[in-house]
């Protein structure tokens, strides 16, 4: 197993997880156990791993939607788990979030979707708001689509609108939960490139929860693999491609079986069918 955070600059992380233990309810399965992660400013960091390993849970911990039972989740040096509702609201303004499938408000135009966080959280004039929204839409190539409704645009375009909305308040941290899910290969490539470019343009830090190895390795500076509640492997995409660790190999080569088993634990074939195959 890799040593935690061995390549990371711990002194300038926007988010740090330190010895985090988490389960959804007392006595329930431990999802994360003694987890240490660093998310350095300015970087794109991917969080990968098998289905149900706790990737989205990491984002929820950072956003303060759930709290660790042990350890600390630091955002800009402050423990998110210790914040009151008002402090949480203030820090969430500094976190852009692109949810799984990037759901848009279906009864609002593309323009109004991107304007929403600005209207909610700022008191800018209509004129400034218009300029800000058009700038964000321009950045994702959809300035011309401002008056369309979500039902009139493709899935790939919707994802880009959701991205423009996530960055509307110029957050220093952007979290993406499965940003590539359900996209065709071209939209997928465009979205990946936009995530990288937005990070650069905003001087932000991006956390990317995803299953898509090729796109992720193309744009991430650093990758964590979670398994069994811990960091099973970590490194730059080049480190991981060169790794001989069977766990990393299974993911990088997309093998269905390996250290991460294909079968959910249960009865043996012999017990279920009375025969071994
Ligand atoms: N609200 C909840 N209450 C109880 N258990 C939950 C809750 N949300 C998630 N879980 C469980 O916690 C585990 C981790 O879930 P999580 O969504 O973080 O996984 P993930 O790695 O993001 O999975 P996927 O890649 O399939 O989206 C899963 O086993 C899931 O069933």
TrEMBL record:
**What superkingdom heads the lineage?**
Bacteria
Q: Where is the ABC transporter domain?
A: 17-253
User: What is the organism lineage in this UniProt record?
Assistant: Bacteria, Pseudomonadati, Pseudomonadota, Betaproteobacteria, Burkholderiales
Molecular-function GO terms, alphabetical: ATP binding; ATP hydrolysis activity
Q: Which InterPro entries match?
A: AAA+_ATPase, ABC_transporter-like_ATP-bd, ABC_transporter-like_CS, P-loop_NTPase
Q: Where are the annotated coiled coils located? A: none
The record's section on CDD domains has: ABC_Org_Solvent_Resistant
Name of the protein described by the UniProt record:
Phospholipid/cholesterol/gamma-HCH transport system ATP-binding protein
Q: Which organism is it from?
A: Polynucleobacter victoriensis
One Pfam assignment: ABC_tran
Q: Alphabetically list the UniProt keywords.
A: ATP-binding, Cell inner membrane, Cell membrane, Membrane, Nucleotide-binding, Transport
